[in-house]
Amino acid sequence: MRLSVLSAAVASTTLPAMAFKVRVTYDTKYDDSKRPLSEVACWNPNVPGLFPDFDTWLVQGDITPHTVAIPSITGWEHPDCITCWMVTKEPAGITRFLLAIDGSKDGFVTSPETMNWLTVGQARDYNRLEPLEVEAKQVSPANCGFAPMDFGLERWDEL
């Protein structure tokens, strides 16, 4: 797991990421601070935690409240686990940085709190029939509160 997290961290800082449009919905389970992280796709069954350096992350309340499930994540070894995503709602230009911890079937799925922040309190107005569309781009883990040493690096541009 550490190698995939490290490669994702390095890739997200050395390669220019392309922004793309994606639909965002919410699920109340991402607001549950007591929800065990063992229920998310990025949980590593070989260590207690999302990855070895963060073995105290056991419930959702231990991590940033701004998390996201994305379709590409299929399991704990996926390189998109523990990556940071910048989502922007246009035309207002409202931006939030989200930490990818889980997989989704379709589009991005986040918490009602984050969805309300993106929609200025209007999350309930968006649903499967009329979902919120945002621009998403993978960005440096620093935007989600990580330091290079969290990934065993001195600088983000190290290999």
From TrEMBL:
Family: Belongs to the cerato-platanin family.
CDD domains: DPBB_CEPL-like
Subcellular location: Secreted
Signal peptide: 1-19
The name this protein goes by in its record: EPL1 protein
GO cellular component, one term: extracellular region
Keyword field: Secreted, Signal
Source organism per UniProt: Colletotrichum zoysiae
